[in-house]
Amino acid sequence: DGFPRNTKQAEVLGEILGDADVALDAVIQLPVPEDVVVARLMSRGRADDTEEVIRRRQQIYVSDTAPLLEYYADILVTVDGVGSVEEIAGRVLKALRDRT
């Protein structure tokens, strides 16, 4: 999950932030292999989380969000999204610190 999910939403977000005189310093991408995404979502135990449904949602998510990588290329920070919450959070903080 994340926001914005497409370039139109990114443009609107940019307008809102611009009106508030706020600029984005970084956009964080947390890539995760599809098999890991499927395993994580299947473990939730929701009836609508079948492997087929999850893989289809993942395809839509990737195709809709892929243009954002180029849109935010100048401020994009990519951090490995595999691991525990603590591990990922640590990598995110380190990546953001290393940018300055």
Structure summary:
The protein has 100 residues and is mainly alpha-helical. The chain has helices at 7-19, 34-42, 51-71, 85-99; strands at residues 27-29, 76-78.
CATH arch. level architecture: 3-Layer(aba) Sandwich
Tell me the name of the CATH class: Alpha Beta
* Secondary-structure content class: mainly alpha
Number of E strands: 2
Q: What fraction strand?
A: 5-15%
Please tell me what the overall shape is: globular
Distance between the termini: 26 Å
If you had to describe this structure to a student in words, what would you say it looks like?
The protein has a single domain (7-99), classed as Rossmann fold (3-Layer(aba) Sandwich), CATH 3.40.50.300. Helix 2 (34-42) packs across helix 3 (51-71). It is globular, with a radius of gyration of 15 Å. The protein has 100 residues and is mainly alpha-helical. Helices cover 58% and strands 6% of the residues.
List keywords for this structure.
100 residues, single chain, two-stranded parallel sheet, 4 helices, 6% strand, Rossmann fold, mainly alpha
Architecture blueprint of SSEs:
Elements: H1 7-19, E1 27-29, H2 34-42, H3 51-71, E2 76-78, H4 85-99
Parallel strand pairs: 1-2
Helix pairs in contact: 2-3
